[in-house]
Amino acid sequence: MKVLKFGGTSIGSAERIQNVVRLINNGEQKIVIFSALSGTTNVLVEISDYLYKKNPDGANEIINQLERAYQNHVQQLYASDEFRKKANTILYEYFESIRSYTKDLFTLFEERVILAQGELISSSLIQLYLEEQNIDSALIPALDFMRTDKNSEPDPVYIRDKLNKLIDNQKSDIYVTQGYICRNAYGEIDNLERGGSDYSASLIGAAIQAEEIQIWTDIDGMQNNDPRYVDKTSPVRNLLFEEAAELAYFGAKILHPTCILPAKLNRIPVRLLNTMQPDAPGTLISDRMDKGSIKAVAAKDNITTIKIKSGRMLLAYGFLRKVFEIFENYQTSIDMIATSEVGVSITIDNQKHLQEIMDDLKKYGTVTIDPDMTIICVVGDLEWENLGFEAKIINALKDIPVRMISYGGSNYNVSLLVKSSDKKKALQALSDNLFTN
To answer: What are the DSSP calls for 274-302, one per residue?
Structure first.
């Protein structure tokens, strides 16, 4: 059995939903995960914002606009008045549920419930369309099997047991469910946050030991560089799990880094495909390594560099521990680190507690920061015994000032820190030297 996940743009119109249904109706048994229709989650966030500000009239105006947009989808999607009526009944129930939260106290709990409605609506409407087309399918609600534990981490044993029982009880060719949403350890409606629907697909794939996990978007697989800044990018056809995770973490938008782990641990291939070009091969992520090749480049923005310079660091043990404890105290993760006898430079992408972190670091040395930096990540088979790769990467940036370099922490990644103003030039230079030539 395969697991297929379709993002919001893949089902953003009635025509696209119809195309997706034709695509999944091929006689193979599968679980299909649907995100909210394109733009819906942003609107639900806006509704929640009005309710936090105690403006129910503003919220109701946005709710009415969203409902009318969905009613328009219904008119275009279904062929018969019978199913249009059923679909409008579904919409009425969901939107009345959303409106009910405009009348009472609004908290984070109510917001999570409202944000869950996008996936619930899209999956219900698509399941109804499958019924109209006489396609053998069943709706298995994610809230009946997707759960996190008290640490807000997915509970794989619970997910596996509940999901397999649901599948056994409803024999169908196609099982429709939602991504992103779940219940927490207390039974409340919650969400998976990191990776959302991609994470759901990977967790579901692991739970049923799927043959393959497919992530369908509007892009032809993972590109070897960012097409928004670089000319003549091309899809990467094969990636190692570790390579994909590095690219996702350092800025490749098509996939969230969290999504990779459950698939990797269970050795389930993940294929990135394009709904608009379903015959394109896309990108296959697996445990197969392409020896001796550089695969792709990605960039992570909004980086701040913090440098701590101290004579006390020379020949002293315990200095780095004290520094790292400060970042741990403020729950701020570190991306890159470089050390010398008298100093350490660290990069972070979360500036929420920057001032407090600097104040605490000043106990141990002189602290300076470089804001507006970008991490450029080059990914491939970069074991230290592969001669010349690191030189080729650095030579590509010979005309660009590089603040930090990280090499050796992974066999698959060289990271370079540059000014954000040099990002586009750096990405193009790497593309020209590593791929074009």
So the answer is: ETTSTTS--EEEES---TT-EEEEEEEEE
Provide the 8-state DSSP code for 359: H
Amino acid at 4: L
Phi, psi of 303 (to 5 degrees): -100, 140
The model scores a pTM over 0.70: yes
Residues 6+ apart with CB under 8 A from 167: 31, 140, 175, 208
What tokens were used for 24? 């999944």
Neighbour-count burial for 121-156, b at 16+ CB within 10 Å, e otherwise? bbbbbbbbbbebeeeebbbbbbbebbbbeeeeebbb
Q: Which helix (H) or strand (E) holds 16?
A: helix 14-24
Could you count the other beta carbons within 10 Å of the beta carbon of residue 162?
A: 17
Identify the three-state secondary structure at position 61: helix
The pLDDT tens digits of the residues spanning 253-285 come to: 677 777 888 999 999 999 999 999 999 999 999
* Domains (range + CATH), the chain: 2-218 (3.40.1160.10), 295-436 (3.30.2130.10)
Type and span of the H or E element at 158: helix 156-169
pLDDT band at 315 (very low <50, low <70, confident <90, very high): low
Give the integer Cα–Cα distance in Å for 27 and 382. 42
CA atoms within 13 A on the CB side of 425: 11
The answer to whether residues 70 and 91 touch, using CB atoms and an 8 Å cutoff, is yes
Rg of the chain over Cα atoms, rounded to whole angstroms, equals 24
Contact status, residue 283 vs residue 237, Cβ threshold 8 Å: yes
Three-class SS state of 370: strand
Q: Are 299 and 375 in contact (CB under 8 A)?
A: yes
pLDDT, tens digit, 9 for 90 and up, residues 421-436: 999 999 999 999 998 7
Task: Check if the beta carbon of residue 318 is closer than 8 Å to that of residue 352.
Answer: no
Looking at residue 154, the DSSP 8-state letter turns out to be B
